[in-house]
Write a structure and sequence with these properties.
Layout (H helix, E strand, L loop, with lengths): L1 E8 L9 E10 L3 H15 L11 H6 L10 H16 L6 E8 L8 H22 L6 E6 L4 H13 L15 E3 L5 H18 L6 H4 L5 E2 L2 E2 L2 E4 L9 H23 L5
Parallel strand pairs: 1-4, 3-8, 4-5
Antiparallel strand pairs: 1-2, 2-3, 6-7
Helix pairs in contact: 1-3, 4-5
Length: 267
């Protein structure tokens, strides 16, 4: 079973923020124990007497307003965020990052969480389809942090398996999404950091966290599938997601031209 842990960064209602990001990490079920062990080791360096009390929540670490982060310097706190992301960077090759950054003003009247959730469900399903094409028969489950969106996202996931997304029916999810308190899941805490790294990349033009995990986003044949930038304001955006999308569209057009020229009667 492949588990996609997802969390959000940013707020749909905060007018001071341009973006909302839903993101996280897909791991094979047996790999979650390694992530837990590595984050537990890091927690021990922060609170040796009670490492389980340490919850890695990136925005709280960054702001340094609550314990234990308020006792750290800015450099120390940001070093913790980078240490968490390096665990993903150094993890199994099969661990893949996924994220959708939604420019809120580009979609007035739309819930950015719902937009991102639909997109990532489709991308995760296509990833599992690709694995099935390689002979793997595993299915997937989505695991999200508990939130006010729980009922809506569960309903959407059920509809995706019957009515489909705008890109088609979801075939490879074994169950409706599960919602778990992030304080008891190190993998969700890692997902939180992935979402925050992408949020900082798009909302604050800060690539210092994103660059650590850039190579972990799901990709195939040089095309990034695990990262999407949903926006309508800059058709020439030079972020990795938008560049990859344009390359993919060019390849599709070239393939169509090639098919036309090689079929009987083509010119």
């Amino acid at each position: 079973m492949h588990l996609l842990y997802l969390d959000d960064s940013g707020s749909a209602s905060n007018v001071a923020e341009d973006y909302l990001v839903l993101g996280g990490v897909s791991v094979f079920e047996a790999q979650t124990s390694w992530i837990t062990q590595e984050l537990d080791k890091l927690a021990t360096t922060i609170n040796p007497s009670d490492p389980q009390s340490v919850e890695f929540h990136a925005s709280k670490i960054f702001s340094r307003k609550v314990q234990p982060w308020n006792g750290m310097s800015q450099r120390e706190a940001r070093g913790v965020i980078k240490a968490v992301l390096n665990i993903l960077k150094d993890s199994y090759e099969t661990a893949r990052a996924f994220a959708c950054a939604v420019h809120k003003a580009s979609f007035p009247g739309r819930d950015p969480i719902e937009l991102a959730f639909e997109d990532l469900c489709s991308r995760f399903d296509l990833y599992l389809d690709r694995l099935r094409g390689q002979g793997e028969r595993q299915r997937g489950i989505l695991i999200l942090d508990e939130s006010a969106h729980e009922t809506t996202l569960q309903r959407m996931a059920r509809q995706f398996r019957t009515l489909g997304t705008r890109w088609g029916i979801i075939h490879n999810l074994a169950e409706t999404p599960l919602f778990v308190d992030s304080c008891v899941s190190r993998s969700l805490q890692l997902a939180d950091h992935v979402a925050y790294a992408v949020f900082r990349r798009y909302n604050a033009s800060d690539t210092s966290y994103f660059d650590i995990i850039a190579s972990k986003f799901d990709s195939d044949k040089g095309i990034i599938h695990g990262l999407v930038h949903k926006q309508t304001v800059n058709p020439e955006c030079m972020c990795p997601a938008c560049i990859s999308r344009r390359i993919s569209q060019t390849r599709i057009q070239e393939d169509q031209i090639h098919m036309h020229l090689t079929k009987p009667g083509g010119e």
